[in-house]
Write a structure and sequence with these properties.
The complex is a heterodimer of chains A (318) and B (441). With 318 residues, chain A is mainly α. Chain A has 2 domains: 1-58, no CATH class; 66-314, MetI-like fold (Orthogonal Bundle). Helices cover 71% and strands 0% of the residues of chain A. Chain A is built from 15 helices and no strands. In chain A, helix 3 crosses helix 14, helix 6 (121-133) crosses helix 9 (174-202) and helix 13 runs antiparallel to helix 14. Chain A starts with 9 loop residues before the first helix and ends in a 9-residue tail after the last helix. Chain B has 2 domains: 6-157 and 319-384, D-Maltodextrin-Binding Protein, domain 2 (3-Layer(aba) Sandwich), CATH 3.40.190; 159-317 and 408-440, Periplasmic binding protein-like II (D-Maltodextrin-Binding Protein, domain 2, 3-Layer(aba) Sandwich). In chain B, 47% of the residues lie in helices and 10% in strands. Chain B is built from 19 helices and 8 strands. In chain B, the strands form 2 sheets. In chain B, strands 2-1-3-8-4 form a 5-stranded mixed sheet, with helices on both faces. The relative contact order of chain B is 0.18. The chains are: A mainly alpha (318), B alpha/beta (441).
Chain lengths: 318, 441
């Protein structure tokens, strides 16, 4: 774009007349810019503008129905002293770390398993995808029933087996409720990790394993020195997505607990929604969601630089 | 926008007088010709309401809509959302300036965005004069000092639902009218393994009714009439202590309950006393009429009672008022008003009340004589839902903030926090005070 100045004139000046604009329209260097313009416009409209508006709102005392005026960092200083916000932030981080770690471990295990020669391989692979295919709200409803205070299938079974004599209060006890929502998130997220890693595994050439086996490598060595290094770029991408999805989760919590009991399962996203849309304090809600941005940026940076370090990207041997 | 003349008022009243002898459609046509609110040419309306809990009520509502369309030519497209989703969707509509023309929601919905509502002063005045005046409590939910921001279409009574056999076994003939008696009843029921239970989760209707009843019973208030925050008070502390004792008698799991949880548990025969609308009873009765013997027996065992009156000696009940409002971005404000006026006229409203089977209570006094209140003695307490409805704290000082405090579950969370032992009295009160001060400070 900036190279306009040193590209231009000589021929154009001699033929004379074509306006600056028409020259720009056919200029090779600018052509790329023109082609990018629609995409840039869509991104600006759908991403930059809402994000900018959200950040702006977080500096105002806007409520639904009133534009609000600039209040500086008021909203931020308020939420920093708000127990609910601190709890939500801590729980969001915990939720993301625990769920992502387990999703990765289980997903990788499943991927390795599905990559082996199994009977009914195609069928098994499609079954693994089911939790991912079911709409989040539906699976959340199912879990809400599974963890119901009175009608939980788990409590019922354990009672019938004579192991407990009263229902487990899954979603009524803060700690248990947290474990339950994390479990539901893991259940839902594992297929994405497993199938993507499986795709990565299939790109690993079998000849590498053959060669390693001839050299006498153990299965663990096969994994550690062939599979893992070749899979790393995929792992980085998958885990970035997984962390982002988990950190910004909303539907699962909203359907299962509404952030209760006593705000213990609020994620930053659900708390922001409650404050902004249900409670009407747009400014405060915007501040809460803007507070998510640094965490998300950190997650992206982490994997981005992790990726950059890989030598394979620079074209040299892995 | 239009003229409301004395002549048109008299005309309207005359027509309504005839209504008793006319069919719905006949009335509608006559009404449309004489109504003070003439829909704009080519008008059509989008209306969002909550998904009905009583199927016959929803059916009756659709009939009113159809009759209105037939009489006026105004098509009305009705969409239904879960009760808890109406307000967020209305908020988005208010913020973006597009969406439904009319919203029928709950509590103080129009107070959240007073500048976005079509003022209904003329309509409220007309209906109030014609039908014996509005009941005070519901009126306060839709009025600020300048305008009627909507109309309180009806109130959903929330009262004690109990199993007669269970309270008899606990040694009581009826629900005690005072707090101490009520606590002893709950303790006895717990001992008999027929536990009570009230929602302490983020349950907009049942949860709020329950906690505000305790709060007001001890004379505590979130804010006083001038908007000064008074929640951190000895009275609130007493209410919290009472809540803790009551909570000890509950069926496990109430902190996770939403509005539907107690209905399920009650109908399954695991819960013996709770607070709810009449929907549990109606569900049991309807199933019983269809031949379910177990449900028939349950319906016979169910009865309803007023909330006991607290030590303060004054009735304090938070009832779910269902207000209807029109957004001022609508292209057809007169059509909106015409529809709301039409709905509240006797020819429609009386039948609708009957079909709602006491789930809805009138807010216009003339409808007190509706047959629904005498048809079934078990529905009787719900008749007073509008009369006994107290005004939400802070409503007179700042309606918008009062609505926000309700939407943010400040009082429910305060009780849940303390009664479950998650935090001590001092920090519970300090926390609630801080949240309230943010709104009213």
């Amino acid at each position: 774009m900036t190279s306009l100045a040193d590209n231009k004139l000589p021929q154009g000046a001699r033929i004379a007349a074509p306006s600056a604009l028409s020259r720009l329209m056919v200029n090779r260097e600018w052509l790329g810019f023109w082609f990018m313009l629609p995409a840039a416009a869509i991104l600006t409209l759908l991403l930059v503008y809402p994000l900018g508006l959200g950040i702006w709102l977080s500096f105002t005392d806007a409520t639904i129905g009133s534009v609000g005026k600039f209040v500086g960092l008021d909203n931020y200083s308020w939420i920093l002293g708000d127990d609910s916000f601190i709890n939500a932030t801590v729980f969001t981080i915990m939720y993301t770390l625990v769920a992502s770690t387990i999703k990765f471990a289980v997903g990788l295990y499943l991927a390795l398993l599905l990559n082996k020669r199994l009977p009914l391989k195609a069928l098994l692979r499609s079954i693994v995808l089911i939790p991912f295919v079911v709409p989040t709200v539906l699976s959340a409803m199912a879990f809400w029933w599974i963890f119901d205070a009175q009608f939980s299938i788990i409590s019922w079974s354990l009672t019938k087996m004579g192991l407990i004599n009263h229902n487990i209060d899954f979603l009524g006890d803060p700690t248990l409720a947290r474990i339950c929502v994390i479990f539901a998130n893991i259940w839902r997220g594992v297929p994405f990790v497993a199938i993507t890693l499986l795709a990565g595994l299939q790109t690993v050439s079998p000849s590498l394993y053959e060669a390693a086996t001839i050299d006498g490598a153990t299965p663990w060595q096969n994994f550690r020195f062939i599979t893992y290094p070749l899979l790393t770029p995929i792992i980085a991408v998958v885990m970035t997505f997984s962390v982002l999805f988990t950190f910004t989760d909303f539907q699962l919590i909203w359907v299962m607990t509404r952030g209760g009991p006593i705000n213990s399962t609020h994620l930053m996203a659900t708390l922001s929604y409650q404050r902004a849309i249900i409670g009407g304090s747009l400014g405060e809600g915007a501040a809460i969601s803007t507070a998510m941005v640094p965490f998300l940026l950190a997650a992206i940076m982490f994997s981005w630089f992790g990726l950059q370090k890989r030598k394979w990207q620079q074209g040299s041997d892995a | 926008m239009f003229n409301l003349s004395r002549r048109s008022l008299i005309k309207g009243a005359g027509v309504a007088g005839l209504a008793g002898t006319m069919s719905l459609d006949g009335f509608a046509t006559a009404w449309a010709q004489n109504a003070s609110w003439k829909p704009e040419a080519g008008a059509s309306l989008k209306l969002m309401r909550w998904k009905e809990f009583i199927p016959s009520e929803g059916k009756s509502f659709d009939e009113i809509v159809a009759a209105f369309t037939k009489a006026t030519g105004v098509a009305v497209q009705v969409t239904r959302e879960g009760l808890d989703d109406v307000q967020p969707k209305a908020s988005v509509a208010a913020a973006t300036g597009q969406g439904p023309d009319i919203v029928w929601g709950s509590f103080s919905l129009p107070q959240l965005f007073p500048s976005k509502c079509v003022p209904m002063d003329d309509l409220a005045d007309y209906l109030g004069k014609k039908y014996g005046g509005w009941t005070e409590g519901p009126e306060a939910y839709v009025r600020n000092k300048d305008h009627w921001l909507g109309l309180p279409i009806a109130t959903n009574g929330n009262y004690i639902n109990y199993r007669t056999s269970a309270i008899n076994k606990a040694g009581f003939k009826e629900i005690p009218a005072d707090f101490d008696g009520f606590l002893s009843l709950c303790e006895a029921m717990k001992k008999n393994n027929t536990p009570p239970g009230f929602a302490l989760g983020h349950a907009t209707g049942d949860g709020n009714s329950f906690v505000y009843w305790m709060l007001w019973g001890f004379g505590a208030h979130v804010v006083d009439e001038k908007g000064k925050v008074t929640i951190n008070s000895p009275e609130t502390a007493k209410a919290l202590e009472y809540g803790k004792k009551l909570y000890a008698t509950f069926i496990p799991g109430t902190p996770s309950w939403n509005d539907g949880s107690n209905n399920k548990a009650f109908l399954a025969g695991e819960l013996y006393l709770t607070a709810n609308g009449i929907s549990i009873y109606v569900a049991a009765k309807t199933a019983g009429e269809k031949g379910d013997a177990k449900m028939k027996a349950l319906a016979e065992d169910i009865n309803h009672a007023y909330w006991p009156v607290g030590p303060v000696g004054k009735i304090g009940e938070l009832q779910s008022v269902y207000p209807m409002m029109a957004f001022n971005y609508t292209k057809y404000p007169n059509a909106c008003k015409a529809f709301m006026a039409f709905m509240l006229e006797a020819a429609q409203y009386n039948k609708w009340l009957v079909d709602s089977q006491a789930y809805l209570t009138e807010t216009l006094k003339a409808y007190d004589s509706n047959p629904v209140w005498t048809a079934d003695p078990k529905a009787k307490v719900f008749k007073d839902a509008s009369n006994r409805c107290s005004v939400l704290d802070g409503m007179s000082a700042n309606p918008q903030k009062a609505a926000e405090s309700l939407a943010d579950f400040i009082v429910i969370d305060m009780f849940a926090r303390y009664v479950t032992g998650q935090s001590d009295l001092k920090s519970t009160l300090a926390n609630a005070e801080r949240q309230t001060k943010r709104l009213f400070g």
